[in-house]
Amino acid sequence: MHEATFTEPVLARSQSNFGHSTAAAVARFAEAAGVPNLVLTHFSARYQDNPQRSPSIADVRDEAMAHYSGQLLLARDLQRYRLDREGRLVAVDSHSS
Description:
Elements: E1 2-3, H1 8-14, H2 23-33, E2 37-41, H3 57-65, E3 71-74, E4 80-83, E5 89-92
Parallel strand pairs: 1-2, 2-3
Antiparallel strand pairs: 4-5
Helix pairs in contact: 2-3
């Protein structure tokens, strides 16, 4: 799990990362390290849920997927995950447990 506050194009326009990472940088690191599951979180509020608007959260996903071949998840508030027997993250239904 790692924060991915920006995409590279948004970071280039803002000219300061404020100590935060881009989706691409995190994805490249996870790929190089052989991380099988990557959960990105802590997105800038500028990323809209609607993929028709720009920038959107889909831009974060697309940028990460261009550099990472493992299982990629974008965290949602209060979502929980568990590892299944094959070592893949699976969302846990918040109404069960």
